[in-house]
Amino acid sequence: MLKIYGKSTSINVRKVLWTCVELNEPFTQEDYGSGFISTLTPEFLAMNPNGMVPVIQDDDVTLWESNVICRYLAHRRGRDDLLPSTPISRARVEQWMDWQASELNNSWRYAFMSLVRGHADYQDPALLAAGVANWNRHMAILDAQLNRTGAFVTGEAFTLADVVLGLSTHRWMAAPIAHANLPAVRAYCDRLSTRAGFMTHGRNGMP
Fold it and tell me: Percent of the chain at pLDDT above 90?
């Protein structure tokens, strides 16, 4: 059976958990990360030298990096609806997944660490204001894309891009910041709320 290493409060672990719901994939979970088992033990570092969650073990396969894990699980189940097999359709899904991991994640880091985590190193007012503005600017990119598609990130069908960006959308909406007026993003969050995986692992009170 698939084994997931990582705490459920981690947004990256929640990507994998939500994907498992979409796949009806059985799994066991072991809590690793801050407040739980350390990710810096030799045993964990042997699985992921970065010392970060999530990690999965699937028989003799060990993988880390949340978006890669989601892709692996969808492909393993032959779920072309979540991760298309045709090159251009797959590339469009992966394009938005990679944008979430690289661009969008970096945009919210300062504001989230300051206002949600309350970290002492992230309390500069000017940097906080810039961080909020940058986060809103990136969410406006998503809003524009959703206005073009009218439904989900890459079109009318739900894909893995919506798993990763759905969690990011919830984090933005839950953050105590001055939110830009992005009606397509808010409608998107409501649309995702019809999915059990999002309600369990996304819109569940955790930022």
Answer: 97
State whether residue 86 is helix, strand or coil: coil
E strand spans, 127-167:
none
- Tell me the two tokens of residue 31: 């809590």
Contact 51, 33 (CB under 8 A): no
CA distances from 99 to 21, 107, 130 (A): 23, 11, 20
CATH 1.20.1050.10 is held by the domain 87-199? yes
| CATH 3.40.50.11810 fits domain 2-76 | no
C-alpha–C-alpha distance, residues 50 and 65, integer Å? 10
At 141-199, the pLDDT tens digits run 999 999 999 999 999 999 999 999 999 999 999 999 999 999 999 999 999 999 999 99
pTM beyond 0.90, yes or no: yes
Is the separation of the CB atoms in 83 and 159 below 8 Å?
yes
* Residues 6+ away with beta carbon under 8 Å from 120: none
Whole-angstrom CA distances from 183 to 144, 146, 155 are 10, 10, 17
Beta bridge partners of 4: 29, 56
Rounded to a whole number of angstroms, the distance between the first and last alpha carbons of the chain is 29
Tokens 């880091």 belong to which residue?
Answer: 109
